[in-house]
């Protein structure tokens, strides 16, 4: 019998062959379809990047215009979905609301025509178009308000901020938000993408694929860390408290949120871009009281943990950007999901192209040949 070495967390085990994105964790390089993330952040838009990820090439202007127009025309959600969302408890976490709503889309569009490119495109468009509407709708509904209708003359990012705040956003704020979506759109075989691929491999519908990935993204070791970073900065309170806070974490062997990564052993390139964008927002609007604390954290963590390759990851500075955009803390992870749906769908499509159901093995370390003990003898 072949004995395989057990790798907790599948560390270093390839789970798929993929041409969607690549990470060089020692040089801090991230590419989508071979294009550096810095270049996409500067020159692309989220919808163009989503197209690139899903269909493998940058679109021509006609292809992009057609895709944008399809997404625009599918932004609304059915009244039965919003009625269902109104029944969600307002104290529930928006990630749970999003997972339930994404799964509910499958009730309406459940036909599984996975060999038909029209079905694939339809599902891609619907999910990319409707997820932001559902996130914004839950935010308004839990505060006792009706959801705001998408506004057709606004682009993807501006429309989301409009639906959330009921007013058109500042142009710089909207562009920075769009860049955030580009940065979060895809990241190789992370936990939620793996989850999406496992679900996809059973040939279920794409709404179930996205719902399972949303559930996986929410945990504090993954996308949920962005929310926890802000709670941590609030708890630290001032720059003087940073060093004792970190020393206490290290003594308790507690994880410092927003730091460390399975692949990056240097600062995550997305964290650098997000930090620059946070600074742009502070310059235009007002400085942020937590930014000095965050910078001091980065210095002290590097001093204490740099030798282990622990540096800020994507979740460390994103929250400061979102806070400045007036977004409530518990929407940070749903916003990560709005962006990552592009990556999940690219992996869904790629998985279907050469599918084999995921069925790994295990290292059994339990007993054998135990006799059943009748209940009265236990
Ligand atoms: C995302 O995978 C992706 O690509 C994810 C992501 C994406 O775009 O999809 O990039 C998004 O999920 C970012 C990560 C957000 N999570 C956090 O910020 C939570 C805090 N970070 C960690 O818990 C941790 O670094 C992980 C979960 C991100 C990575 O976990 P690993 O690879 O399993 O590493 P580990 O927990 O086994 O730690 C290895 C060593 C340990 O020290 P030793 O026991 O070897 O001495 O590094 C230490 C850890 O104690 N360590 C940390 C630390 N992260 C790792 N120590 C203190 N604080 C940390 N944050």
From TrEMBL:
UniProt keyword annotations, A-Z: Transferase, Tricarboxylic acid cycle
GO BP: carbohydrate metabolic process; tricarboxylic acid cycle
GO cellular component: cytosol
Molecular function via GO: citrate synthase activity
Catalytic residue list: 261, 315
Pathway linked to the protein: Carbohydrate metabolism; tricarboxylic acid cycle
Matches recorded under NCBIfam families: cit_synth_II, PRK14036.1
Protein name (record): Citrate synthase
